[in-house]
Amino acid sequence: MLNILRKRAQSPLIQGLVLVIAIVFIFWGFGGNQGNNRTAVATVNKVNITYQDYVQAYNQATENFRQQFGGKIPPALMEQMGIKQHVLDQLIQSELLRQGGEEIGVRVSDLMAQEKIKNMEVFHEKGRFNQQRYEDLLARNRMTPTVFENSIKSEIRTQRVTEDIAGFAFIPDYEVDRWLAYSEEEIQLNYVQLNAADFEKDVVIQDDELSTWFAAKRKNYQSEVKIRLKYLTFNVKENLDQVKPAEEEIRTLYESRKENYQQPEQRHARHILFKTSEGDTAAVRAEQKKKAEEVLQLAREEGSDFSELAKEYSEGPTKERGGDLGFFAQGRMVPAFDQAVFSLQPGEISNVVETQFGYHIIKLEEIRPATVRTFEEVRDNLAVTLQKQQAKALTFQQATKAYEGIMRSGSLEKYSKEGKVEITTSDYFSQTELPEGMIKDPKFITTAFRLKKGELSSIVETEKGYAILFVDDIQKPTLPELATVRERVVADYTKEKADDLAAKAADQLLAASKEQGGLQQAVQAQEIEDKPEIKTTAFLHRDAPSGKDMPPNQLIQESFAMPWKEKLAKAPVHIGSSYYLFEVVERKNETDTVDAAQRDEARKKLLASAQQELFSAWMAGLQARSKVATNTSLLQ
């Protein structure tokens, strides 16, 4: 419909219709069917998830992200991350979990949640739960007690249901043996890399062959669509001097954004870290914890210097600056660390705290109280913000007035003569090659190439303001002659033929390796000047890290996939622009040296994986037999 209006804007009938449509929009607005229940964003087996529930969860999620990004996160990034859908999915999963938990007899009372909250050290003062501290901390994080207590109930429910379902997982001894045999296997390789680029010098360009090749590939060199554009621009910057926000308006804006100027309490801490990693054995972790406990005793001795102890013992990146972490707000550190820091008083030293990074000893140096930036501090920035907003609104009014004038005049050309406005006319250009002076705003360019010849755009918002576009002419793509794109064609032809030569060389070397009993013998027997280099690896595990002197991971996985009796690769391995050949020098699997602690660690990993699979399968079954309806039109 809009396309018809733009193409035939000069028609008196169309001009009348525009007026009627505008009146309808003014009095009735835009409609939409949002379903029968306008207060529920989703329904799970007839149980509603209300819009209020969604808003609370969304606000908390966005607040968490803002804290992670230092208080600021662009709206476009939030949109790109899909926060709205993620929050909705989480609410649906939570409700499914609640219903599934009730089916298997798991219920969580308010008392259970309250008891857990009372035991959280972060809400303690002098070793006991403090109601005022609890309410203050929640308020600083923009959370109500009801929302927080519901989240704790959900956490308890998830934990109990997970434990109940996971309790059915069992790992027999033979599974542990199979896993150890798999994970402890090592392999040593000889391998050769043949790069296609090294064969480009051997490619001979024959004109007749190049012409035949180009004829088959000609469509790849087809020119782009080109357009000639006429357009009007409306720059916000040009209207900045036309507006001056009133003091009352600036103060009103401050009050509406006051919560954005709240700076939460920050704490200055130091720590001493004894590092551990996911793959460490129980014995290694126990040894690190013992070290941490010994240094903790030193730190608590009278007259000890925590900073010097950190420089001497810490294994973390802050070691050289005495473990200094600077100031940070609550929620910026991992949960266990965060909880410990915000339960201390200045000068206090924590017990040993375990996180995924290892074992920490933490000292709280200083507390910086929460503050709110005053109106006077932010007044000038707000004035600039308001001035830009008002200038943008004025600019939009100008663009709207111009658009209405174009519609009344019947064409952009006639409006230009009547209104004495200057139209910019471009040369022909493609989407990837913009002419000098052309607006490079992505939305502007995308809109231009979506229009048809003789079509007028609606008002397009750009980075600098607004624009109205008219496509004056379109040049269709053309198939070029070889002479006009010969340089590109030769380069592409050379690369393709060089790749063919590399593939052929790899096949020949593999055949020779089979005949002569190995890759090394075949390479040595080659009567060429530039023989490929044979590289020999150390013994590699399946999860060997990639590196400068390491074969590609794909090659390592291919070698482990070979039967034990076979040594030579069945076919060259094509990775990127190279072909690889390999042979297995030796395999070994020393599971006999695995001690009880390693077996126990392997069993724990397998059990955790089995428990996760079991829980995921249970949730998938629960969702499959449930009726879930969503009302995404309510998402803010």
Q: Count the DSSP helices.
A: 21
Helix proportion range? 40-55%
Morphology call: extended
Largest sheet: 4 strands, antiparallel
* Tally of distinct domains: 4
Radius of gyration: 35 Å
What does this structure look like?
This protein has 636 residues and is of the alpha+beta class. The protein folds into four domains: 40-168 and 626-634, Porin chaperone SurA, peptide-binding domain (Triger factor/SurA peptide-binding fold, Orthogonal Bundle); 185-220 and 485-588, no CATH class; 226-255 and 375-475, Chitinase A, domain 3 (Roll), CATH 3.10.50; 265-369, Chitinase A, domain 3, CATH 3.10.50.40. Helices cover 48% and strands 16% of the residues. The chain has helices spanning 2-7, 12-28, 51-68, 75-81, 83-103, 110-118, 131-140, 145-166, 173-183, 207-217, 247-256, 282-299, 306-313, 335-341, 375-409, 412-419, 442-450, 486-516, 519-525, 553-561, 596-624; strands at residues 40-44, 47-50, 124-125, 128-129, 186-195, 226-235, 262-263, 266-275, 324-329, 353-355, 358-368, 371-372, 424-425, 460-461, 465-475, 534-536, 573-575, 578-588, 628-630. It has a four-stranded antiparallel β-sheet, sandwiched between helices. A hairpin with a 2-residue loop joins strand 17 (573-575) and strand 18. It is extended. The two termini are 28 Å apart. The relative contact order is 0.15. The model is unreliable at 1-36 (pLDDT under 50).
